Amino acid sequence: MKFEFYLSDLVFKILFLDQAHGLKTTVLSYSHYLPRQELLPEKRVLLAPLLATVVGSDVLESQLRRLQPDLHLFGHTHIPIDLTLEGLRYLQWPLGYAREALRQCAPIHKSGPLKVFDSDLGDSAGGIPSHLPTLDVDWTIYYSKPNARDPNNTTDLADWLKVRLETLVKTKAEVEKNAK
Predict the structure, then answer these.
(1) Taking a C-beta distance cutoff of 8 angstroms, is the pair 24, 125 a contact?
(2) 61-69, long-range: CB within 8 Å, 24+ apart, which pairs?
(3) C-alpha torsion sign, points 13, 115, 76, 88
(4) CB of 91 within 8 A of CB of 81?
(5) What is the pTM assigned to this prediction?
(6) Distant-in-sequence, close-in-space partners of 21: CB < 8 Å, separation ≥ 6
(7) Strands ordered across the beta sheet of 81-85
């Protein structure tokens, strides 16, 4: 634990020295876990609703607020998303399991690895390409539109989930009809 704090303090000292000399260093941070619950779609739209009970870390989020990275990369949920919340950009570009390659991880398997920093663009926040394929994934688009997260809304299902459930109900009805 002491080592973590020492390393963290060292990083902040380097960034402070860069700023004191008028340098702008691009800061990329990463974690396996989600630092905020808002980076996970609401429980009402998840196929695995219990996932909502194991995401979000106040400690991690406070470290990010202190660090102020240009981009924070995270994993854990295998749900591709690219959101800016309270001035910090968060991005997940998961490879996922093989069974996820045709579903939520399909954009990753289509586009391939993600270049999040390009030194040819400069050693500043400009080193992050302005348009990444992450801006075109379903959850990024969904939450960028007027679909802001509403933790109080526990009944409205996402459109894609309604379609999937309707398909399951129709399939079940057809199976039961054919079984008679």
Answers:
(1) yes
(2) 61/35, 61/36, 63/8, 64/29, 64/35, 64/88, 66/12, 67/11, 67/12, 67/15, 67/27, 67/29, 68/27, 69/27, 69/28, 69/29
(3) positive
(4) yes
(5) 0.74
(6) none
(7) 28-31, 71-74, 88-92, 81-85
* Whole-number average pLDDT of the chain: 79
3-state secondary structure of 74: strand
pLDDT band of residue 73 (cuts 50, 70, 90) is very high
Rounded CA separation 89/97 (Å):
25
Rg (CA), the chain: 20
Number of H helices, E strands in the chain: 5, 4
Q: Do 75 and 56 contact (CB within 8 A), yes or no?
A: no
- Contact by Cβ (8 Å): 82, 135: yes
Q: Which two tokens stand for residue 67?
A: 């660090």
CA atoms 7, 8, 13, 15: torsion sign:
positive
Tell me the residue type at 117: F
